[in-house]
Amino acid sequence: MLDALLDLVLPQPCAGCGGPGSWCASCAEELAAAARHPLGWCRPSPVPVGFPPAAAAAAYGGAVRGALLAHKERGRLSLARPLGAALAAAVCCLEPPRRLVLVPVPSSRAAVRARGHDHARRLAAAAAKALVQQGFSVSVAPLLGLTRRTGDQAGLGARQRAGNLAGAMTTRLAVRPDGAVVLVDDLMTTGASLTEAGRALAVSGVVVHGAATVAATARRGAHRL
């Protein structure tokens, strides 16, 4: 609703290609195609020790990249639904059981305040709705939090990202998850965030079925298995 009102007052360019219209038909189809035919099982290269089985819906580029950035950094919240559908497709690539618990990778409180929303949690909720429509029993559980401040990951290499996040997450476990736990995030780069999230859950005795993201970066060496 907010996106639509803003578009009436100040028309926004397409989030995917920058052309006319806030989300053009061509870019919408590119993202929808990722949900219909996801990339599937993939992993970064090099693979971090402890990295969970993972899948992505698409390579990070084109309309998918534009939509992720617009949703995450520019508040184009209406994109959560098609991005969530793509994330749900990545979850299905993990061949999970019918009862699922989606656990979003946490952002810092400062990042959430700056953006005005928790992008991973919003995508998890959208993916859960899409999965319910496919017959899954799904809940979203924000079981993870950050124990300390971490530096900006942008521009860091695989080893630097791992060091930046090592030991930075902990669990908020009131009750044990009722279902197969799947970590979810917007993007897989070096795998440092997903690895640390899996470690934190494992310390609390939670078994992670796998991890799913909307996209995976080719420049970091993610590749289909």
Write out key terms for the chains shown.
225 residues, alpha/beta, 8 helices, 20% strand, globular, disordered C terminus
What can you see in these coordinates?
The protein has 225 residues and is of the alpha/beta class. It has eight helices and nine strands. Strands 4-3-7-8-2-1-9 form a seven-stranded mixed sheet, with helices on both faces. Helix 8 (192-203) links the parallel strand 7 (180-188) and strand 8. Helix 4 (80-93) packs across helix 6 (119-133). The longest helix has 15 residues, at 119-133. It is globular and about 50 Å long. The protein starts with a helix and ends with a strand. The model is unreliable at 219-225 (pLDDT under 50).
Task: Please sum up the structure shown.
39% of the residues lie in helices and 20% in strands. The protein has 225 residues and is of the alpha/beta class.
- Structural class, from secondary structure content? alpha/beta
- Number of separate strands: 9
Shape: globular
Structural Rg: 17 Å
Estimate percent helicity. 25-40%
Write the layout of secondary structure elements.
Elements: H1 2-9, H2 25-36, E1 40-43, E2 54-59, H3 62-73, H4 80-93, E3 99-104, H5 109-115, H6 119-133, E4 137-140, E5 144-146, H7 158-165, E6 169-171, E7 180-188, H8 192-203, E8 208-216, E9 223-224
Parallel strand pairs: 2-8, 3-4, 3-7, 7-8
Antiparallel strand pairs: 1-2, 1-9, 5-6
Helix pairs in contact: 2-3, 2-4, 4-6
